């Protein structure tokens, strides 16, 4: 993506004599407007149109080439950023953009022109925003629909239609909370950059010396997995609504505990969560709290938990490396309601009186050979205090 490229070869061929879309003919990726027999828009369509105008910051008046030209960039470069944001493909004649789209594109490009971001970084950051906000919006919409179904006793399909009328009362507040949360999370991320767990780092480096797969990775972190026991069999006996409530309860409880422990929930995959923490001790506290919470929960089954201290690569909001793989393998070996760590992680925690470490029988772990699992248990202290 070159921010000042205007070369003709980067521009798509402009078709001749392409008719303008009619009032009722929506461009690609745009919700079509179907006029009732009377020629007037239905109240539902009017509500959708009004909400769209509010969310997009104005009427759709611009075509893609007009937006690219207004931002001073080739169509090719603009399309790279739009794809990163997750936009659908628009044709040359699609009137799909607003002045706010032009302003947003210009903002991204100005960061590159000013040398604050490289082109690659701009696309990566933009993709992160697009993917995370897409997931967030789906989550929020489904949560609102579920609440309407539960509170009003209406069918799901009816709730989805009514949500269009409810959203205008919520949009501003949700936007404000989003910005507030982003700033808080950014601050927390900056604070994490300053954390230096010297004792844990030394234990990790000494314990894994010579591990060519682990040593080159840049970050030392505690990586943990928590996996619900018997989830598959439970899901077969539950209807969709009950299963959704179980999964939501599991995710909410995990997110709360991990947050209180100072960790970060990387992702959830069905009945399993992946999390990280800055120090071996923080990872151990979170892991023990998770195992205890699910053991004591009256609805959820117990969980298997494992945690490994080692080096990782963090990219695209996810984490990678042998440490992650080993933590996943140990989770499968853990007994319900217990926490397993590996021998090197146990060495990093060995002098901490808050933890008791009990070596288990050696296991042959796929991809790692013979591993000595160590059971982690509570020592002195109360552990994480959960409200």
UniProtKB/TrEMBL annotation:
The Guanylate cyclase domain, residue ranges: 222-331
InterPro entries, alphabetized: A/G_cyclase, Nucleotide_cyclase
CDD domains in alphabetical order: CHD (cd07302)
Name of the molecule in the record: Guanylate cyclase domain-containing protein
UniProt region (Disordered), positions on chain: 1-28
